[in-house]
Structures are given as structure tokens and as C-alpha cells.
Design goal:
With about 230 residues, this protein is an alpha+beta fold. The chain is about 35% helix and about 25% strand. The strands form 4 sheets. It has a 5-stranded mixed beta sheet with strand order 7-6-5-10-11. The protein is globular.
């Protein structure tokens, strides 16, 4: 065999050794790449345009929710943005005397809470906000005790009615609906907030299939890396 043939065979061998593992890597990782779906952003505040190298570039600024101060089932005054800084939040609305929508919604919420009992428990905090200003701390504690022993990870909270309704409408974009004219208004929608307080998902709290996506989305937000916008 000539030196030229030997050299050619050597090159072919190197190419196969390099490209074959690479092709297997790309093939087997393609389903994984397509399955990793990062939750979308909701509620655009503004769209900024900048001229860069002679071309206009649009930068979308998404809404970030303001802080809300409340009292939880342990009687502690809490702040969603200060006390839960760096946490992903899953937020819903309820009231303790609600006997129709609230129990199944809370139970669906509880399934997600239990999913984070052992792994990744510190990345997410669960917040159930009462829309009834008459819900006392003992009432919240009794309601919470029906569903969870994790009072440090799942808050059942109350506060100023106007502030809560303003937060639901103007910060989360929710429409609070009454079951009857005599009952307090609430929404069955559950909202996912990232660590920067951008809205990243809405779920139907009464639809187990819709709500089952919440756990996956929380993990995706943990994997997401981006800089905080001032």
C-alpha cells in the first residue's frame, strides 16, 4: 500500500472517529432540545427601539409585578417581593368559606406542592391569597392545616381588600368573578411568577391537565439564566 493510500485511510479513520460520536450526540439530544420549552412571558409594558449599526432593534419590556404586603396563616406580616426574593411564586386566590371552586383548586395546588417536597423545594414558594377581608389568621390556619403541614413553603394570606383586588387586576391581569352576587369574588386562574416577578404562565386551577404543567414550568424557570432588567 502506498503512503498516499495510507494517509488517506488515516484521515478517513479520524473523520469517522470524530463525526460518528457527534452525529449520535446530535441525534439523541434532539428530542431533549425540542422538549425543553421555557415558559413564555406575559403582559407587555413597552417596546423599546434602538438604532444599532444602522439597523433598528426592538426590545420588549415585560410587566414585572409590584410588591404586596400581607399577613399569613402564622400571623406574620410578609412581603411577596422582599421576603420571597429570589423565589419562583405560584399564586392563586380563594377564601375559606368557599365550598365550590376553592377546595378542588386548593387540592390541585397541593399536588404541585407535594411534588416539591424533596427535590427543588427551595426554588419555589406557594401563595394562596384570600379575597375575603373577614378571613382571620385562625381561619387561614385552620384552612391551611387541612391541606399541608408546610406552613413555611405555602402561605395562606390576607390583607387590605383594595390592595389585593388591585394586585389581581392590574398586576396579574386577572378578572375576579363572583359565583353569586352574595359571595366574594375570586378567580380560578393560577399564576406563575419568575424570580424577577415577570408573569410566565397562567393555569386553569380546576383543570388537572393544565395544572400538571406547572411543575414542569417551575423546573424550566430554574434552568433559565438571564440578567435582571433595571
Amino acid at each position: 500500500m502506498s503512503k498516499r493510500k495510507k494517509s488517506f485511510g488515516f484521515i478517513i479513520g479520524i473523520a469517522v472517529a470524530v463525526l460518528l460520536p457527534l452525529s449520535f450526540f446530535l441525534y439523541y439530544n434532539q428530542p431533549m432540545r425540542t422538549a425543553l420549552k421555557i415558559p413564555a412571558f406575559y403582559r407587555i409594558d413597552s417596546i423599546d427601539s434602538q438604532l444599532v449599526d444602522g439597523k433598528w432593534r426592538k426590545d420588549t419590556v415585560y410587566h414585572r409585578t409590584k410588591d404586596l404586603k400581607l399577613v399569613n396563616q402564622l400571623g406574620k406580616e410578609v412581603s411577596l417581593n422582599e421576603d420571597l426574593k429570589g423565589k419562583i411564586l405560584l399564586v392563586n386566590f380563594f377564601f375559606t368559606n368557599c365550598n365550590t371552586v376553592c377546595p378542588p383548586l386548593t387540592e390541585n395546588m397541593n399536588r404541585v406542592v407535594r411534588g416539591f417536597e424533596k427535590k427543588n423545594r427551595d426554588i419555589v414558594h406557594f401563595v394562596s391569597i384570600s379575597v375575603d377581608p373577614n378571613d382571620s389568621v385562625p381561619a387561614l390556619r385552620a384552612y391551611a392545616d387541612k391541606y399541608t403541614p408546610h406552613h413555611d413553603r405555602w402561605w395562606f394570606v390576607t390583607g387590605n381588600k383594595d390592595s389585593i383586588f388591585d394586585f389581581a387586576k392590574n398586576e396579574l391581569g386577572l378578572v375576579l368573578e363572583a359565583e353569586t352576587p352574595d359571595e366574594f369574588m375570586h378567580s380560578q386562574q393560577v399564576v406563575l411568577l419568575d424570580t424577577f416577578r415577570n408573569i410566565r404562565a397562567y393555569y386553569d386551577g380546576l383543570d388537572p391537565k393544565s395544572f400538571s404543567q406547572a411543575g414542569n414550568d417551575i423546573i424550566m424557570l430554574k434552568l433559565e439564566k438571564r440578567k435582571k432588567r433595571n
